[in-house]
Design goal:
Layout lengths: L1 H23 L31 E12 L6 H4 L11 H9 L24 H8 L1 E8 L6 E9 L6 E13 L4 E22 L2 E13 L3 E2 H8 L16 H8 L5 E5 L7 H4 L3 H21 L4
Antiparallel strand pairs: 1-4, 1-8, 2-3, 4-5, 5-6, 5-7
Length: 299
């Protein structure tokens, strides 16, 4: 009898322990009925083909701008906050730079110049990106205004609205094809700053949008981070395409040329004042580059 009672108590105790263990375990998130490949398991960037200087018979440098407000570029901007395995391009860059840990020697470096040979102190970048706004103060008892106060708004990945790329187009006579390489990328933050009172009402505050630069990033140093981040493919999430595939090889983005290499070091807006003429000049430059390869052949 005693053995039976002891056996029953033992079983109840084991059941209670297992129940406690099951309750404390966090189940995996709902994703898919198949095994999800971890982002860290993705391969690194695909290396470029070897190009010798003697094989480059023609080259030109151009600068282009990617506007994330355009519909085709929305997959680079969304999601504005990390969702599962997806992050937007700005979040990938900010995580790689790791501005919250300025002593991190493995973080992605930022440069002050276009040649990407002078590094910037990342602590200075973080302070420069903070947006200061002035808001009214109110008396907690009467609710009457008693002055103004300044608040600091931290920067976020959702504020990156533009990217400026520097790239080189060249013809490799060894492979007989026209190729392009992105050399640097420069993110731009867009802020709303107070510009005083509006007309007709002193209480209305007009907000103007202003841009702030993050700094220049070597694209080859950024590629390892891009190759570890899955790009959200609309209407087919089974495709594990990375940001490196999209930007480097597929070039699935919309942009416009703002300058090409010239001795005056000027942009299109310096000699074309009308926005329509600027777009036409941008298309003209791109068409000249595309037509170079076909014009090499003679019949």
């Amino acid at each position: 009898m005693k053995k039976g009672i002891f056996l029953i108590l033992s079983l109840v105790s084991f059941a209670f322990l297992f129940a406690q263990t099951d309750d404390t375990q966090i189940p995996p998130p709902l994703a898919a009925p198949w095994e999800i490949v971890e982002v860290s398991a993705l391969p690194g960037p695909i290396p470029y083909p070897v190009v010798r200087q003697n094989d480059v018979m023609w080259s030109v440098y151009i600068w282009r701008e990617i506007d994330l407000r355009e519909k085709r570029n929305h997959a680079l901007y969304f999601p504005t906050e990390p969702q599962g395995m997806y992050r937007n391009l700005a979040q990938v860059i900010l995580d790689a730079i790791d501005l919250d840990n300025p002593d991190n020697e493995d973080a992605l470096p930022i440069y002050t110049n276009e040649d990407c040979n002078i590094k910037v102190d990342r602590s200075e970048i973080k302070n420069a990106l903070v947006n200061t706004k002035r808001i009214p103060r109110f008396d907690p008892d009467t609710g009457e205004p008693i002055g103004e106060m300044d608040i600091d708004e931290p920067f976020t990945a959702a504020q990156v609205m533009y990217y400026r790329l520097k790239e080189v187009w060249f013809f490799d006579k060894n492979r007989g094809e026209l190729s392009v390489r992105i050399l640097s990328i420069e993110p731009f933050f867009e802020y709303e700053r107070d510009a005083g009172s509006g007309a007709g009402n002193d209480d209305d505050v007009v907000s103007l949008k202003t841009k702030r630069r993050l700094g220049y990033i070597r694209y080859d140093e950024l590629r390892p981070y891009l190759s570890k981040q899955v790009y959200f493919t609309p209407r087919n999430t089974a495709l594990h395409v990375t940001f490196d595939d999209v930007l480097t090889w597929k070039r699935y983005f919309s942009s416009y040329v703002i300058a090409e290499s010239n001795p005056q070091n000027r942009e299109i807006q310096d000699y074309k004042k009308n926005p329509r003429d600027q777009r036409l000049e941008s298309e003209k430059i791109l068409n000249q580059i595309r037509n170079f390869e076909s014009e090499l052949w003679e019949y």
